[in-house]
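Q: Structure tokens for this one, please.
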Amino acid sequence: MRSIASFVRSIVSFNSPYDRYLAGDADALTPAAERGMELFFSERLECFHCHGGFNFTDSTTHANSEISQVGFHNNGLYNLNETGAYPNDNTGLYDMTGQARDMGRFKAPSLRNISLTAPYMHDGSIASLPKVIEHYERGGRLIENGPYVGDGRLSPFRSEFVSGFELSDSDAQDLLEFLMSLTDESVLSAERWSDPNRE
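A: Here is the predicted structure, written as tokens:
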């Protein structure tokens, strides 16, 4: 187990186009990705409140952290029976605390290399990044049939940062372009992290 933990800790991903842009390479981001970055970090969309910091998550702590508390958020993914409930085997922080306010609250994951990690959300219930953007644009997911019927936008436990917003098609494309710019291709091809048993 320790060897696996040591290996995982060695995987450092800070060579994405976004990282190169921050390091001074003005051409590392496309104009669309730059516009998407402005949207991402705007109060209008609120993305950065949960996906902030160098790792694009408020769940990262390190030696120089000023805040040690890890954030948990309900993003309106479910609202069973219009009570804010989540599926029984999928209740988030509520499973540990039993407090109603913690129903559906999960840690915000890092968005680094997000283009490589589909499907999305803690339970893999959203298939693509455009669909994720639509979810947050609406301010919660509407499930109209099946066992999980409910409108996540109406959940009493939904985070204040998931309030919905309006995006033009070009804005949505710009935001997607920015999210794609968080992918570090060098991690995918580095020999030291490759499968040692590959032929």
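A few notes: The helical segments are 2-10, 17-22, 31-40, 47-50, 94-97, 129-138, 169-180, 185-189. The chain has one domain: 17-53+74-186.
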